[in-house]
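Design job #97: recover the sequence.
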């Protein structure tokens, strides 16, 4: 998916996107399969499967991708969440204190995704989590390289 329209709103002069990504494809496909399996018996129970699977399809195939966009620029990390109502967060590389990778067992085995937690310094210190990203250790290495 192309997130350039989103990033064009937030990039400052001289800033450029080095890496842009979102929720992992395997995470989305796995959840669609699970909801397909759940919807099949519901199809025969008053036709509820006709309702549950399209909702899951919209949520995982469209909404999750559009509402979770992440990017590394030459200056900072950009996080865009939401679709109709949106929130944009940016973290300057100089403010990042720690970066942690979390790979829960089922995410690691079934979807090959993990979370990247970014901690910041300062009085309003926060933890930002990039959820369900593919190859989280490679993304962390890329972030570490961008910070140097």
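Job complete. Output follows.
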């Amino acid at each position: 998916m192309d997130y350039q329209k989103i990033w064009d709103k937030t990039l400052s002069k001289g800033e450029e996107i080095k890496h842009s990504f979102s929720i992992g494809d395997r995470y989305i496909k796995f959840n669609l399969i699970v909801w397909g399996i759940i919807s099949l018996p519901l199809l025969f129970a008053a036709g509820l499967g006709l309702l549950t699977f399209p909702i899951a399809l919209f949520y995982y195939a469209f909404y999750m991708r559009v509402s979770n966009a992440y990017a590394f620029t030459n200056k900072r990390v950009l996080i865009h969440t939401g679709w109709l109502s949106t929130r944009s967060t940016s973290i300057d590389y100089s403010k990042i204190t720690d970066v942690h990778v979390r790979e829960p067992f089922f995410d690691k085995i079934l979807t090959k995704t993990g979370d990247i937690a970014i901690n910041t310094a300062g009085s309003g210190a926060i933890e930002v989590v990039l959820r369900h990203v593919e190859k989280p250790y490679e993304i962390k290495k890329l972030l570490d390289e961008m910070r140097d």
